[in-house]
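Hey, resending since the last one bounced:
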Amino acid sequence: MQDLSLHILDILENSARAGARHISLEVTADLTRNRLTIRVEDDGSGMDEETLHMAESPFYTSKVERTKKVGLGIPLFKQSAEHCDGGMTITSQPGKGTVVQATFAYDHIDRMPMGHLADTVFSAVLGHPDIDHRVLLTRIGFGGKKVFRFDTAEIREELGDEVPLTYPDVVEFIGQTLQEGVRETQMEEM
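The structure tokens again:
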């Protein structure tokens, strides 16, 4: 994968396939500590110890259709984090969900760029409009802290039952809101 946003999309899709009803994405760029942290938490089906161990193998995939014989997303994401003076942890419980967290040295020369984070979240939200997506972007720099929050449950509550997230005006609002939030926190500049 060419950038971190594609890894994030892969993890978000894994959460959706696991039957998650709520997915939380947190990206924290802490320049004062030289750390970039990406965390995805879901309430999907979760994994037992054996499946959790196999999830880190490039020769395992949980995809039902089995068109792919390997699942490189998590192993490549983990390798990338470790190569950039960071690491990855995956915790999971059957019936309770999964948490994937990767850390990177922010200024590591080999760290992939963030990529198009707003487009990634936009794709996940509109690809699975029935799932509640919560996003928290935080950038901590020497000049202060910038935070962006986005929550489809709040949007749904504001719209009521009559207007779906896929309604054209809502789609436009979601796209603009995500673009502005990513721009304000300077996440795509990383």
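Confidence is low (pLDDT under 50) at residues 63-71.

Sorry for the duplicate.
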